[in-house]
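Example 626.
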Amino acid sequence: MSPDSAPNTGTTAAPVTEAARYQAPRATVDPDTTKTWLRRAMPILRAHRGIFITSLVLSFVGLVLQVQIPDLLNHAIDNSVQHHTVPLHFYVWWVLGLGIAGGIAGYVSRLFLFETAYEIEYDLRNIIYEHLTRMSFPFYDRVQSGQLISRANSDIRSVQMYMTFAPMILVQCSIALVAFGFMLSINVPLAFVAMATMPFVFLVGHAMRKSMFPVSWLIQARLADVATIVDENVNGVRVVRSFAAEKQQLNTLASAADKVQWGYVKDADLRARWTPAVQNLPQVGLALVLAFGGYMVIHGTLGLGAILAFNFYLLMLQAPFMMLGMIIMMGQRAAASAERIYEILDEQPTIVDRPGAVDLVDCKGDVRFEKVGFSYGPDLPLVLSDLDLHLRPGETVALVGRTGSGKSTVARLIPRFYDVTGGRFAVDGHDVRDLTIESLRANVGVVLDDAFLFSVSIRDNIAYGRPDADIADVEAAARAAGADTFIRELPQGYDTVVGERGYTLSGGQRQRITIARTLLVNPPILVLDDATSAIDVQVEQQIHDALRVLMEGRTTLIVAHRLSTISLADRVVLLEDGHVVADGTHAELLETTPRYAEVLAQADPDAAAALEVVERNGSDPGHRVT
Ligand SMILES: Nc1ncnc2c1ncn2[C@@H]1O[C@H](COP(=O)(O)OP(=O)(O)OP(=O)(O)O)[C@@H](O)[C@H]1O
Ligand SMILES: [Mg+2]
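Predicted structure in complex with adenosine-5'-triphosphate:
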């Protein structure tokens, strides 16, 4: 590495990360569920009413300007071309001027309209995301958050489209009244003849959308299926390859792609059927105008220019009337989308601060489960029952038990990811439901076996819980976690960006970064769930060294599968079917509880051999396995 490309790992005291420039939405959805979906969404539109109304007004002005043009043409042909009473250039300049002014108004109006649309989209997305971040874990157990987000995207779009484009289409249709007024002023009977086709244009437009919308829905859903399969292929590539299941995956993808193709062909078919009708309806109108108007011109009751003007009016009104049919479909779709969005927004987080909750200050780290009962849902069986467990300040307790015995569940109760269903869970003598969640979680550090890292630099990953930490602190935490050496060997050192799940790093390396992340926050209570699973013995040793540093002076609950992990603890608790069946030092449990040795042997085959050695040597109290 050349010196000038060296990462800035000096001891500057600048904060590691910049505070995000998040702009909270100016308004939110009306929580009153008795209102219609549109009225509930209105506050968001109202927050941007300035540019939205300007956009509508400018659109109207632009149309009013354009509507003058056919009338000018009428007069130009009659007065300048036929009768030479007015110089032709007078009309030419007027038409040009109106065209340019109308164009500018139309441009600004469109710009503002799209701006409003994307502002609404931004707000809705943030409102939903903000809500999701507040939701409690039981909610995430029920829903698939990935699908939630991707579905939200298309729903947000259809709501946003309807809220902004529907009023715009109405404005454009309202110009029909002005145009009709002009037509009436030229010739009353011909005005009615010309407008006669408009209801049909509306009906055809509506019928076309109605037959095409289900197909476009279908295409969207099937495209999502394809995206899911591709996503799984990419993320699960190791599984696919290891089972040599590429063919099978390709078949799955091909059948999903076939379904998309069917949708597109159906769509093209419908389009091909409707297009002639859509294109020829205006010709019918033009023919009617030509027949009636021409007749009147021949008999001298109408000027030649009038026919031309009417043609222009007809063409000008086609698009808005077509779109009017579309509004109805857009409305139905937006209503369905809005309902789905509200379904998320109307769900309230279940784990919240109760009124009058107090902050946990000067946490000593006394953790106590008293006759705790717990189930993941009202209809689900009890996972914990009558669980009593006391962790004294500064003590390290290993939690051991068969798979499914409820170890992770106990760990999840400590940061109050879930609330107990019976009994009481207290920190420093306070029931956690009387404490503010923020202060509780600030005092509880959690290291999970799924060492999740964000797609940012290692430095930012370590500083995640304390973005204001300076670089020296980050490095100190990394050193304590035994991560500093390997981080420095990476091409960009602390600035190395790790992949979505930290794929560029090994499991043990990721684990040590998550340990550094927790160390930096320095919480008095620590929860480690399977923190050293799936790691080889040598790396495990390094992690244990890091863990020893981490646990020092803290109350720690460590879920342990291996003897080596248990060796880190002062005390061992054996969990069976959701309650504590034995509690003591490793040696005591070996002596008094045969079940303990069985569980250990099952969880850690290597331990079985070690245990035999222990048994052969006779139990020696206080002996700690290493
Ligand atoms: N989010 C959840 N929703 C519903 N049930 C759950 C949930 N998480 C766990 N369970 C159930 O609770 C029981 C205890 O699970 P837990 O994860 O606490 O076991 P564990 O002791 O950590 O097991 P392991 O050693 O395999 O990690 C299991 O029967 C499991 O099926
Ligand atoms: Mg577990």
